[in-house]
Design a protein that fits this description.
The protein is α+β, with helices and mostly antiparallel strands. The chain has a domain at 1-78: Cytidine Deaminase, domain 2 (3-Layer(aba) Sandwich). The protein has 4 helices and 5 strands, in the order αββαβαββα. The chain has helices at 6-19, 59-71, 89-97, 117-120, and strands spanning 32-37, 42-46, 78-83, 102-106, 112-115. It has a 5-stranded mixed beta sheet with strand order 2-1-3-4-5. Helix 3 links the parallel strand 3 (78-83) and strand 4 (102-106). The longest helix has 14 residues, at 6-19. It is globular. The N and C termini lie far apart (35 Å). The structure holds tetrahydrodeoxyuridine (THU).
Length: 127
Amino acid sequence: MSDLTPADAELLAAADEVAARAYAPYSGFQVGAAVRARDGRVFAGCNVENAAYPLTSCAERTALSRAVAEAGLGPGDIEAIAITASPCGGCRQWLTEFRLERVLYRRADGSVALSTPAALLPDTFRV
Ligand code: THU
């Protein structure tokens, strides 16, 4: 996609790198995600599966949780995320929660989409 900046491409490369470390023995589907904070720091995460399938942690949630746990970041502090696959519905809610501006993800056909949380999940639930 032509709108990708060099920083976007770097973030997607970080997502690809961490995807190789995913723990996905059940689905065999390795996913990586990398978030870029406003100050430039990058936090990456992969999916971590469990024999009790619903307990699996998606890559996006792992990456966002790392940004929270390691740097105390919260909504508004994270500018962008790159994901090696299309985000699931639950992760779209997480992207909304953290108010990301740029959401890059690789579609099943290999093309890269540039989107926003609002476009991915309209009329979002909020408290
Ligand atoms: N997965 C993610 O990590 N992120 C998504 O947004 C979609 C799904 C993972 C969860 C599970 O380990 C595997 O992909 C197959 O669903």
